[in-house]
Amino acid sequence: MANLKIDGIAVEIADGSTILQAAQAAGINVPTLCYHPDQSVKANCRICVCEVEGQRLLQAACSTPVAGGMVVKTNSAKVLKARRLILKLILAHHPQDCLNCTRNKNCELQTLAEEYGIRDNPFELKLKGYAEDNSTRAVVRDQDKCIVCRRCVETCSVVQTVNALCVEDRGSDIMVAPVLGKSLAETACILCGQCIHACPVGAIHENEQIDEFLAAVADPDKIVVTQIAPAVRVAIGEEVGLATGEMPMGKFVAGLKHIGIDYVLHTNFTADLTILEEGNELLRRVKEGGKLPMFTSCSPGWINFCETFFPDLLDNLSTCKSPQQMFGALVKTYWAEKMKVDPSKIYSVSIMPCTAKKGEAARPEMSDSGFRDVDLVLTTREVGRLFRMSGIDFDKIQPGEFDPWMGKYTGAAVIFGATGGVMEAALRTVYEVVTGETLADVNFTAVRGMDGIKEATVNLAGLEVRVAVGHSLGNARKLMDQVRAGESPYHFIEIMCCPGGCIGGGGQPITKCNAKRAERIGGIYVEDEQCPIRKSHENPEVKQIYEDFLHEPLGHKSHQLLHTHYAPKNKSIL
């Protein structure tokens, strides 16, 4: 342990800790921009400088190790002057258009400029004048706003192992850019949006479609129907001033009706349906010698990754569409038939935690209903903006109810939003289907939690089924390399593109730490525990759709509407 003083406060902390960590332990807030709690130390923005007694130069708190007897000042006149100068230099190369920025009031640079009283700047504003890169359907880059903190680069290269972004040039010309000077769409970008969470400013953001939504709800010829993904409910409260997980579902439904949506249904319904289709597909592969291990196919960022980096393993993917796309196909067929409405008038809007869902909805193969299955995807953040724009007071609004036929769901569907959730939901159903026995405990805790890779073995009437769960694509790559080498011991592998699963999706409220993702996961499991039905095959509306419309899992109509196949992306840049 090291004993030191920070701003006159005695601190004892483990050897090897940094001044920043010691200050945090003492309750002292040291500003940061390039620092990220879940990443390596970069020490390039220098906004965290502090005075260390005996040192002539100011030291970066994020990278300077503590030492016994060290005396540190984090708020001296010299330190504050230096930080203000650093901020002014950064702002001299950063657009001053905060009112037009998606990160307005949620920008780390803007917050620091206000905290340090930056009211004028002696340095001339000099921008490079880069055009926005809006080449993808999901993610937009604004190079002029980049402060070269490199957090997005580490997220893309280390966490996701995609390497779509890199650092180019040096000195005053240094910049973060897509590799080889390409547009984002020409790189291996899989549209996960994790770079959006890493970015402290507005240099990367989702392709916002609020105007398209407002035009749709204003059109009297359109019937606007929405689906809510399971991970959205636990996070949407963060956008409207509520604590994580504290948005009651009834009030969420009422809020959506208030902003103009005609019918509110739930992606959880098709999450339950996915379990019936995917579980039966797994059993068929195991019994009939199909391609194993089978991979889940719910996460579009993961699908993009597999198509790009592991095209030789595409046959291992489940043929099930994601719950979003199953819903899109059914809302314009089954639901339209039940409600006696013209499917050509249905405008299908999905509310997702995921930026890659915007790209998934635009895939040419996603039109098996005879129309574009999903017309528009809004992220959790976009819906939060719509709620704030509409002036809804969630303390006072009266709860609403889901509309009929595709709104009922189980606890198994709820946990789709967390890493391991799809696997656990599948095991709850597959176990009972195979054994004919009722599970005494539906909680498969071995596949829960934030560990990068989790595994379990389940005995299904004498058949030992080995399963694995991976979240974030760096962990996916480890599992895929094992499969490619012929060394995988698993029958079934769940992969979610984003850290923590969908609760950490690129379209969720901005968070830069896994601690917040773990908090959201906790909310997911609380809701699961509270559901009266916790197994997908017991959902009464799922039973009804098989009786009235689909007839059987993996049947002809199911294959037509609920299943698909993927093809290699053949990215020339790889």
Description:
The chain is of the alpha/beta class and 574 residues long. The protein folds into three domains: 2-75, Roll (Ubiquitin-like (UB roll)); 125-205, Alpha-Beta Plaits, CATH 3.30.70; 211-562, Fe-only Hydrogenase (Larger Subunit), Chain L, domain 3, CATH 3.40.950. It contains 20 helices and 17 strands. A five-stranded mixed beta sheet has the order 2-1-5-3-4, with helices on both faces. A four-stranded parallel beta sheet has the order 11-10-13-14, with helices on both faces. Strands 12-17-16-15 form a four-stranded mixed beta sheet. α13 links the parallel β13 and β14.
List the helices and strands and how they pair.
Layout: E1 2-6, E2 9-13, H1 19-25, E3 49-52, E4 59-60, E5 71-73, H2 77-91, H3 108-115, E6 139-141, H4 151-159, E7 165-168, E8 175-178, H5 194-198, E9 204-206, H6 210-218, E10 223-228, H7 230-236, H8 249-258, E11 263-266, H9 267-288, E12 294-295, H10 300-309, H11 323-331, H12 334-339, E13 346-352, H13 356-361, E14 376-379, H14 380-390, H15 411-414, H16 421-435, E15 453-460, E16 463-471, H17 473-484, E17 492-496, H18 514-530, H19 540-550, H20 556-562
Parallel strand pairs: 1-5, 10-11, 10-13, 12-17, 13-14, 16-17
Antiparallel strand pairs: 1-2, 3-4, 3-5, 6-9, 7-8, 15-16
Helix pairs in contact: 7-18, 9-11, 9-16
